[in-house]
Specification:
binds zinc ion; alpha/beta; 341 residues; globular; Rossmann fold; Quinone Oxidoreductase, Chain A, domain 1; seven-stranded mixed β-sheet
């Protein structure tokens, strides 16, 4: 079968690989229905991360089940599902205590289409994908929802959700600052999910005019400047850094109110990123840095979509056919979705 690989910097290539096979209990073989490009994929391909080639690419997807191990009770062949991008077993101590990204049954940090382990587990830009823990990793798409619009639910929509949902549950009507940038689609999903969850004012800041204009279209109160200031006035209850920029991250940290929350989805592959320590200490700013808990949060985001409170299709910028994936995947854009094979 065909599988798209990140072969070397700025280069993707289709490779012919063996079809995956069921070889034990609890498994599924799925055919991707739609594959979305994560905000991290372009930086990976451009060589800006520590993910080194070569491995299969694509980790956000919806898929149709084509084969199932006999012991599986809660899924059926033909079901359309959201596929968890993190490989998780669902039953180890980490999975049982709501920290599935630390699943101890698989190598730490194993994902589809992302990093060394993807050579074993595969990627979404393929004709077939094996799901080793089907009941833990597949979430059925409710009737009436287009699987194409859900492709990014595997990762970026849940990553956005973790930046807003816990804080809006604790403080309904909280005022948010979302700092846009490299994590472009995550920032947009965060705006829409925050609206769905009853945020107060949602302020969006960016140093890119086109991204700022789009955030305004989504309903955020937009501030734009060519450079990041030290801080934004606004006494924000929660600040969410999606900038991928140290200056953006530091501005977000400084813009939270005393005893406010700061969350970042930026990934700095440098352990020496400076934080405004004494300002955060005196103000008591609570900073959260984490990978997303995709398995734990997917059902909640899916419910928002099913209830028509959140329409992820508003963020999609381009849809292409499977045969055009290699060319399209390297073109910049907010949210690319590839139709399945
Ligand atoms: Zn991702
Ligand atoms: Zn586990």
């Amino acid at each position: 079968m065909k599988q798209l690989w990140f072969a070397k910097k700025n280069t993707l290539e289709w490779r012919e690989v063996p079809e995956p096979k069921l070889d034990g209990p609890g498994q599924a073989i799925v055919r991707p229905l739609a594959i979305a490009r994560c905000d991290l994929d372009l930086p990976i391909i451009q060589g800006h991360t520590l993910f080194r080639p070569a491995f299969p690419i694509g980790h956000e997807m919806t898929a149709e089940i084509v084969e199932l191990s006999e012991d599986i009770k809660h899924l059926q062949i033909g079901d359309a599902c959201v596929v968890n991008f993190q490989i998780v077993c669902g039953s180890c101590p980490a999975c049982s205590s709501h920290h599935s990204p630390a699943c101890t049954t698989v190598p730490f940090g194993a994902n589809y289409g992302l990093g060394r382990e993807a050579a074993e587990f595969g990627g979404g830009l393929a004709e077939l994908v094996k799901v080793p823990y089907a009941e833990a990793m597949l979430q059925r798409v409710p009737a009436g929802i287009d699987p194409l619009a859900l492709a990014s639910l595997s990762d970026n929509m849940t990553d956005a959700y973790r930046t807003v949902a816990p804080y809006l549950k604790a403080q309904p009507g909280a005022n948010l600052l979302i700092v846009g940038g490299v994590a472009e689609s995550i920032a947009c999903y965060a705006i829409l999910e925050a609206q769905a969850l009853g945020a107060g004012q949602i302020t969006y800041f960016d140093t890119d005019k086109a991204r700022a204009d789009f955030a305004a279209q989504l309903g955020a109160t937009v501030e734009y400047a060519e450079k990041f200031p030290q801080r934004l006035g606004g006494n924000f209850d929660v600040t969410i850094d999606c900038s991928g920029s140290v200056d953006g991250f530091r501005m977000a940290l400084r813009s939270a109110r005393p005893y406010g929350k700061a969350i970042t989805v930026s990934i700095f592959f440098d352990n020496s990123v400076p934080i405004p320590f004494i300002e955060m200490y005196t103000k008591g700013i609570d900073l959260t840095i984490s990978r997303t808990h995709a398995r734990e949060q997917t059902p909640e985001v899916l419910q928002l979509i099913a209830d028509k409170k959140f329409d992820p299709a508003r963020v999609t910028s381009r849809v292409v056919d499977f045969k055009d994936a290699a060319e399209a995947w390297v073109q910049p854009g907010r949210k690319l979705i590839v139709r399945g094979p």
